[in-house]
Design brief:
four-stranded mixed beta sheet; about 425 residues
C-alpha cells in the first residue's frame, strides 16, 4: 500500500467494512489477531484486505503506533506465527506488514492478500490468551472446523460458522464461479498441470483441453489465408532465423469462441507465441513519423496462452526452444499491468525528445538484417522488403529494446 491509498482509506475512518479495519494498537492476544486474519481471508471479495494500526476506531483520528508496543509484529514474525497455526489446509494466509508515516506518526498496515483458497479453517482449536500472561484467557478459543468470515464490518462470532449464504459465496469464489467466463478462462490458463495437449492429427488443428472441465478448449489451427502475411516481423529480429510462421489460436467454451488471435512460430517452429500487442509512439525525426513497440500484459490472454502452450509442448525445457524463447524476450516487453504500460510509454516519449537517434536505424543495420533475411526469403516475399520496410522494422525493434531497458532501470523485471 502506498501513502495515497492509505490516506484515502483513513479519510473514511472510522467506517469499516470487509476490506479494512482500524485498530488503535496491535492485538494483545495473538489468537484474536488470528481471528481477524481468518475472517478477512474468508471474504467473497477478490481484493486484498487491511488491518490498519494507529487509527482510532471511535472517531478515525490518527493516533500512531507506540514503538515500544510489545505486541507489534513485523512481516517475518507474523508469517512465522501463521506458519505454525494448525490450518486444515496445507496453506496459510499470505500477509505483509509495512509502516508509513501520517501526520508525523507511524501507522502500521497489515495486508491480508487475496486468495481463492477459501474457505480457510482450523484443524484444531486455538486458544485466545493474553500475549504477556498465557494464563489469562481472552474469550472462547477459535474452534476447529468453524468457518469464520467477515461480513460488512463484523466478524463471525467465535463459536459459530458464517451464514449459509456467505458459505455459498466462498465456495463460488474458490471455483471462480462468481466471475465472468473470461476471468475464469484466465484463471485456468495458469493451471498448467490440468491441461492436456492433443497433437495435430489432421495436419490442420491442435487441441488443448482442460481436463477438470473439458468445456474449456484451446484450438490452434492452420489457416491458408495467412500464407500472404509478412514472413518477417519486428519482434523476430533477434532470432537465429528471422522468418515466422502463422497460425490462428482460439479459446472456446462449450464450442463458442470467446477469443481468437494470431499465433507465430519462430526459428523453424522451435517456439511459438500469440502475436504480441503493439502501440505507436510519435518519433521526432525527419525520416520517421512514429514507431511501434510490442508487449504482453502478464494477466491478459496473449501472454497466458503463450506460456501455457509453451509449457504443454515442453518449450520451456527444451534447449533449442529455450534459446529461441530467450531471443524472443529481447524483442517484446512483458509488463505487469496497463498502468505500468502507460507510465512507461510516457517515460519513453520524454526520453526520446533528446535521444531519438538511439532508435533510428543506420545503413549498416539495414544491410545486416537484409542479409539475414536472404537466408529465408521466398520469391513472392522479395518485393515487400525494400530498404524502407526493413528500416521501419528495425526502428520498431530498437524502440522496443529501449523500452525494455527503461522498464528494467525503473526497478521492474522483463523476466517471467
Amino acid at each position: 500500500m502506498n501513502y495515497e491509498e492509505l490516506t484515502n482509506i483513513i479519510k473514511l475512518a472510522p467506517e469499516e467494512n470487509e476490506q479494512w479495519d482500524f485498530k488503535e494498537k496491535w492485538h494483545e492476544s495473538n489468537g484474536e489477531l488470528l481471528r481477524d486474519i481468518i475472517n478477512f481471508t474468508n471474504t467473497p471479495s477478490h481484493n486484498d484486505a487491511y488491518i490498519i494500526f494507529g487509527i482510532s476506531d471511535q472517531d478515525g483520528s490518527v493516533i500512531g503506533i507506540d514503538e515500544n508496543d510489545p505486541n507489534r509484529k513485523n512481516k517475518q514474525q507474523l508469517q512465522d506465527y501463521l506458519r505454525n497455526i494448525p490450518f486444515a489446509q496445507n496453506y496459510y494466509p499470505k500477509t505483509n506488514v509495512e509502516t508509513l508515516e501520517v501526520d508525523e506518526k507511524e501507522i502500521d498496515i497489515l495486508t491480508i492478500y487475496n486468495t481463492d483458497d477459501v474457505p480457510l479453517f482450523l484443524a484444531q482449536d486455538v486458544a485466545r490468551v493474553d500475549n504477556n500472561n498465557k494464563q489469562k484467557k481472552k474469550g472462547k478459543p477459535l474452534g476447529r472446523g468453524l468457518i469464520y468470515s467477515r461480513i460488512g464490518d463484523s466478524n463471525t462470532p467465535v463459536d459459530q460458522s458464517t451464514t449459509d449464504e456467505q458459505m455459498k459465496r466462498l465456495w463460488q469464489k474458490r471455483f471462480r464461479l462468481d466471475v465472468s467466463i473470461y476471468d475464469r478462462f484466465k484463471y485456468i490458463l495458469k493451471d498448467y498441470n490440468n491441461w492436456t495437449y492433443v497433437p495435430r492429427l489432421d495436419n490442420v488443428t491442435t487441441y488443448y483441453i482442460y481436463t477438470k472441465d473439458p468445456d474449456f478448449v484451446i484450438e490452434e489451427a492452420f489457416d491458408e489465408t495467412l500464407e500472404n502475411r509478412d514472413a518477417f516481423v519486428a519482434y523476430s529480429l533477434s532470432q537465429f532465423k528471422l522468418r515466422v510462421g502463422w497460425n490462428v489460436v482460439r479459446l472456446k467454451y462449450r464450442g463458442t469462441i470467446l477469443y481468437d488471435n494470431l499465433y507465430n512460430y519462430f526459428d523453424n517452429a522451435t517456439f511459438g507465441a500469440v502475436m504480441p500487442d503493439d502501440r505507436f509512439i510519435e518519433i521526432q525525426s525527419k525520416d520517421y513519423i512514429s514507431g511501434a513497440y510490442f508487449y504482453y500484459l502478464k494477466d491478459d490472454f496473449p501472454f497466458l496462452i503463450t506460456m501455457l502452450i509453451a509449457s504443454l509442448r515442453g518449450g520451456l525445457n527444451n534447449g533449442r526452444a529455450q534459446f529461441t524463447f530467450e531471443m524472443f524476450k529481447k524483442d517484446a516487453l512483458f509488463i505487469e499491468n496497463e498502468s505500468q504500460r502507460l507510465a512507461l510509454e510516457n517515460e519513453t516519449q520524454n526520453y526520446l525528445k533528446g535521444n531519438v537517434s538511439e532508435v533510428i536505424p543506420d545503413a549498416g543495420e539495414i544491410e545486416s538484417i537484409k542479409s539475414k533475411m536472404k537466408l529465408d526469403i521466398g520469391m513472392k516475399d522479395r518485393p515487400k522488403y525494400d530498404d524502407s520496410k526493413v528500416a521501419n522494422m528495425i526502428l520498431d525493434n530498437k524502440l522496443t529494446h529501449l523500452m525494455i531497458e527503461l522498464y528494467s532501470s525503473d526497478g521492474h523485471n522483463n523476466e517471467l
